[in-house]
Specification:
The protein is of the alpha+beta class. Helices cover 33% and strands 19% of the residues. It has helices spanning 18-33, 57-77, 106-113, 139-152, 181-189, 217-220, 222-243, 263-280, and strands at residues 41-46, 83-88, 95-97, 100-102, 118-121, 124-128, 134-137, 163-164, 168-170, 195-198, 201-204, 286-287, 293-294, 297-305, 308-315.
Length: 337
């Protein structure tokens, strides 16, 4: 949970702007997170008592770019793939609220972020605080709660319809209602990770990432992208541990040297790992249009060029149900004497 650069306030220090606050928070707080290689999720946010009323368009653009850069660094350069949950105390859509003009809303932020490793939420939640009293907490609390739900479920389990231990939920500026059908449709179409009241409890409507470029379940849903993150880490770390720093070569008749790192040995090792994931249900078999079975992984290719080994493989990740459609055909009865 990091607060940085909002109205000149930060948990860590008091930078004068968001441009100074967020890099400071990332550099000092995320440095520790990066050391945890097998972490599945993290939560950080933007929140303030003034609910970002003084934020300019430039501030929001800076925030978006910083978040995307941070995720890019953690998922690529630092090889620590994970889902980042961001809580924003911001209106759903651009407009004037409480006499303050907001040039962008949360839905605009999601469009600009458009990243399968970033999930954005924007609701305050009511629950018991550290002092034992019940009260409203900013959107960072929902970001942390969502990350906790992910960590509490099995790998690849959807966040859809998972319940949170909270007593109430509301938008930070009271500009939209989680029970209003129009607002819910906007939030759903806008890929907002939001919570709705249900039978006296509260549940996550759907585990969205901020990816909106195309309707690709592998990138729009947290649970499917998490399988990708897991496979990336598992295959890379295992291959690096076994073959990194080993000799490369091609075994042929008349050659006494047997290279530990060769195409066949790497391919065999990766196949073993994929078979284990297939047995565990992390990747699953599929079927073509004719009903023929397709293996959970296929098109496995290993290439070594110089000192670089590239492993490519196509997999079918485990998915989950988000919608259940009932199609009932009615036929009028006929009675004859």
């Amino acid at each position: 949970q990091l607060h940085g650069g909002v109205a000149g306030n930060s948990v860590l220090n008091k930078p004068a702007s968001t441009d100074a606050g967020f890099p400071f928070s990332f550099e000092n707080g995320m440095e520790e997170l990066l050391k945890i290689k097998d972490i599945r999720a993290e939560a950080y946010c933007v929140s303030s008592d003034t609910q970002l009323t003084g934020w300019s368009t430039g501030d929001m653009e800076s925030l978006i770019n910083m978040v995307k850069t941070h995720v890019s660094v953690t998922c690529e350069a630092n090889k620590t793939e994970r889902i980042a949950y961001v809580g924003l105390d911001y209106p759903l859509m651009a407009g004037t609220y409480g006499g303050v003009v907001y040039s962008k809303g949360i839905l605009d932020v999601i469009k600009r972020t458009n990243n399968p490793s970033v999930s954005i939420c924007g609701q305050e939640i009511k629950r018991f605080k550290a002092n034992g009293k019940e009260g409203l907490l900013p959107s960072w609390a929902l970001a942390c709660s969502n990350a906790g739900v992910q960590l509490g479920t099995d790998l690849g389990e959807p966040l859809t319809l998972k319940f949170l231990d909270i007593s109430d939920v509301q938008s930070p500026l009271n500009d939209w209602d989680a029970l209003d059908p129009v607002d819910l449709r906007r939030a759903l179409d806008g890929s907002l990770l939001y919570v709705e009241p249900f039978n006296g409890s509260h549940r996550i409507v759907r585990g969205f990432t901020s990816y909106m470029q195309e309707d690709n379940l592998a990138k729009t849903d947290i649970n499917v992208w998490e399988i990708r993150n897991y496979l990336q880490r598992r295959l890379r770390d295992s291959v690096e541990k076994r073959f990194g720093g080993r000799g490369i070569g091609i075994t042929r008749p008349g050659v006494r040297f047997v290279a530990p790192a060769n195409i066949a040995s790497i391919r065999e090792h990766v196949t073993t790992l994929l078979e284990e994931d297939r047995a565990d249900g992390n990747i699953v078999d599929s079927q073509d249009a004719s009903g023929n079975f397709i293996n959970a992984y296929n098109s496995l290719a290993v290439k070594i060029s110089g000192d670089v080994c590239t492993v490519k493989v196509q997999v079918f990740p485990k998915t989950g149900l988000n919608f259940i459609l009932i199609d009932t055909a009615f036929q009028l009865p006929t009675i004859s004497a």
